[in-house]
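User: Some background: our group keeps a shared notebook of sequences we're curious about, and every so often someone picks one and asks for a predicted structure to add to the entry. Today it's my turn. The entry only has the sequence so far, pasted here. Could you supply the structure so I can complete it?
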Amino acid sequence: MGLDVLRRLALASGTALAVLCGAALSSRAADSLTAGNANPNDWPEYHRTWNAWRYSPLEEVNTKNVQKLHVAWIHQPGDITSGLLSTPLVADGVFYYVAANDNVFALNGATGETIWHYQPKLAPVASQSFYASQIRNISMGHGFVYLGTLDGRVVAIDQKTGKEAWSTQLTDLKKCYGCLFSSTPVLAGDVLVGGTTGGDQPIAGQIFGVDALTGKLLWTLKTTKDDPKSWPGDTGAVGGSTAWNVGTYDPTSDTVFIGVGNAAPDFYWNDRHGDNLYAATVLALDPKTGNIKWHRQEVPGDHYDYDAVYEALVVDEGKRQLIVHLSKSGFVFVMDKADGKLANVWPLAQNYNWVKSIDPKTGELAGQVGDYPLGKETVVCPYLLGVRSWNPGAYNPKTKLWYTNAMEACETLIPAKQDVSKIGIAGLYLGVEKLEAVKPPDAPASARLDARDPITGKLKWSVPYSIPGLGGVLTTGGGLVFNGDPQGLVHAYDAENGKELWHFNVGSGVRAGIISYAVNGKQYIAVPAGWGSLAPGFMASAFPEVGKLQGGAAMVVFALD
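Assistant: Of course. Here's the predicted structure to add to the notebook entry:
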């Protein structure tokens, strides 16, 4: 039998198998357990796999030998502005990451030796932006590394050579303040899907679909809905609502799950009474067209800065899959992946007063705080960074626990109307005359790492932190949970009970995502060290020790002997 015949038979068998697997959610090809264990040596996308687990199946490093971890190599990008915010990617032994000001590196994953370095020539206007220098991720596929730039472009870089293949300008920062890519669009088949930053500025948010092979713009979705009941008058034209964080692509349903941020002005609702769609909303999108398959608005009429941009964690529950989605509001929304129907809502925050409760079946808000009184101080909990910032948690299928950082802080604010015409390119459209982070009314400001059942919220264990952890959590098949803290300590915990088994000082706080991968059968743990981003400035008044922390930027990679 010839090779061509064998290939055709294999293809036919594979097609038939795919049809059978797609028929039942519990099939091994479609469930999130299979996805979470795929390609154990690589970390090919932001959360490693489409279900956003941030779980590495690798077991060489485990609870019995983690104390023997040592530094294998270190790479310094040279630019320490804003620290390191990006989760690295790894494929076939090559390590990719992006540092401040869009510096992209490809390294030997075993040695840290530089293979290539790419940096686009940014338009001068990029340095004037409020978000200048800050970049959270890269994407990869089709032989390219994709970069969303700080001057409003999407760029494809040849994965082997580091040469630019194409560049597409999507926005004009001089006309659309903050319309830059601090997060690179996610690859969804042949389409890159993502939105710009600037949700705290007087702009109207957009999500773009770009041909991943050619860079051609395929579609644009406006995220301030054209509906006078939703956005009275012309408030939608400056309503913020940007999808500024990394979405996820589910190939089993051909759907991009992406969250939309806060409405603007953040705290002055008086002129935009309405639900303000699609602010504070999780969107399920068709990547080919940008059409909305379903949406769930978690905070209608958002005037709290309660973005819905965090990870869409997917877990299996019998014959259905559930999305577990943390909002800045302090609540976790558990919904059916197929249609967004609620399965549960539970509070991660211990201190919240913007609402009395949320119906776990309907999502209806009870006792929601309306307009803040003008000229008077109001204390709102949680504060604008939420119960957690954008740093993702991690889910371990062996323990069935979700590990996430959390913090307890509030804010004192006085609302105020702003003149949009007087807000410059680096100005914010917050709608306040005073905004200060404070401790909760009846408790100190605090922080912790929690291990919880993601569906019910039941707490298994918790570790206290003096300053909130702002790095992405990693969990592994070796029964470990890795988390970095703002002081620069990287901790390894037993995933079952939270006992600390190892720690190491990397010299500067961790703000990015920790990952694990393997080269030639050897497991590595990569820690992007380098304290930065905008969050520390906002939290300093509630956590004064933040002002003493060291900056820096270094990729520190660990392994066993």
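Suggested note for the entry: DSSP finds three helices and 38 strands in the chain. Confidence is low (pLDDT under 50) at residues 1-29.
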